[in-house]
Amino acid sequence: MNIPSELKYTKDHEWVKIDGDIATVGITDFAQSELGDIVYVEVETLDETLDKDEVFGSVEAVKTVSDLFLPLSGEIIEFNEALEDEPEKVNSDPYGEGWMIKIKISDASETDALMSADDYKALVGA
Fold it and tell me: Which strands make up the sheet holding 14-19, listed edge to edge?
């Protein structure tokens, strides 16, 4: 299982890459493997400002649909439109081409509550 050490994680199996006041968000390798083949990613909150832990979209797999929870408060400034035609990128490259959204962070102190790679490994038993 791939859990890059430079990223932060949430208990909802999302990863967060922070670059200044912009956070890139996707689901982890563990999450995509649990979900199975992803057939659709829906994000209808582009250009909206949401609070941490609010639902920003959903990911649909062959077997199930899961809500996506915002790991940090902020404005959703970008959606990975490549996922509209190729949602399977979330399965094949969850930390790269399978990223989902970018957020303009509104409260940087919330990043302190995100999990380290080691904490996330403990959560999933890796």
Answer: 8-9, 14-19, 22-27, 101-105, 74-79, 49-50
